[in-house]
Amino acid sequence: MKAVVDKSLCVACGACAGTCPWVFRMGADGLAEAYRGFERTELDTAQDAAQDCPVGAIKIE
Length: 61
Ligand code: SF4
Fold this sequence. Notes:
Blueprint: E1 3-5, H1 15-19, E2 24-26, E3 32-34, H2 43-52, E4 58-60
Antiparallel strand pairs: 1-4, 2-3
The site of iron/sulfur cluster has 14 residues, from helix 1.
């Protein structure tokens, strides 16, 4: 499974990287990125990060 961050929406709040650091990190451009795929066992926290994003920039695929 993987997450995708729409950087055109991200406001660099850092919430996703705080909630789910094994999927999200803040990139060199200061915006969030999903840097690795994840297993179904990690889906809950990835979904939490997506739901908590204040601008809806995260999609789970
Ligand atoms: S939670 Fe959303 S707005 Fe905040 S850093 Fe992550 S992708 Fe960007």
